[in-house]
Design a protein that fits this description.
single chain, about 170 residues, mainly alpha, about 80% helix, about 0% strand, DUF4149 domain-containing protein
Length: about 170
């Protein structure tokens, strides 16, 4: 905005608008912008890098890899639940969030929660039981549960940057 624009009656500069927001709303905006990309990095690093590489490491047997994977994904899902809760709280307290309650960020957030609940409450317990069987020396029947979990991870890889980009665009002047 030009100096002339700032001097016009009723014209409020973007910087002043940001400073006038309550601290909670400014913090919420930072969370809405940062958390989707942090979460995306975690999913990419663990699901698409660590997990496949783990089984190629020398000396890692299938039972050992599954045991490690169970621990890693339990920790990842716990962190994801915290990040989803932080995003939800940010949407509820952010000025930008309030203006988008019926918009894309809220819809994407609901989609992320749905994927996460399915992974944590439905898929992972079944995958854990299957891993226990393999670790115990049994050979369970073939299953597509793992593919469903991977599909959910792929959906998150699409939704998370979508959320971050939409929020960034809405926060820009």
């Amino acid at each position: 905005m030009t100096a002339q624009g700032r001097d016009q009656p009723g014209a409020i500069r973007r910087e002043e608008q940001v400073r006038q927001r309550p601290v909670a709303a400014r913090l919420a905006a930072v969370v809405l912008l940062a958390v989707p990309f942090v979460w995306l990095g975690m999913v990419l690093a663990i699901s698409f890098l660590e997990t496949p590489l783990k089984f190629r490491a020398p000396g890692i047997t299938l039972p050992l890899g599954l045991g490690i994977g169970r621990l890693v994904f339990r920790a990842l899902n716990a962190a994801e639940l915290l990040l989803a809760a932080a995003l939800t709280l940010a949407v509820l307290t952010s000025t930008a969030g309030r203006s988008t309650i019926a918009g894309v960020p809220t819809t994407v957030l609901i989609g992320l929660w749905a994927l996460l609940v399915v992974q944590v409450a439905v898929l992972r317990p079944r995958l854990d039981r299957r891993a226990h069987q393999i670790i115990g020396g049994q050979v369970p029947p073939r299953s597509r549960l793992h593919l469903a979990y991977i599909a959910a991870e792929c959906a998150k890889v699409i939704l998370l940057p979508t959320l971050g980009i939409v929020v960034a665009l809405r926060l820009m002047p």
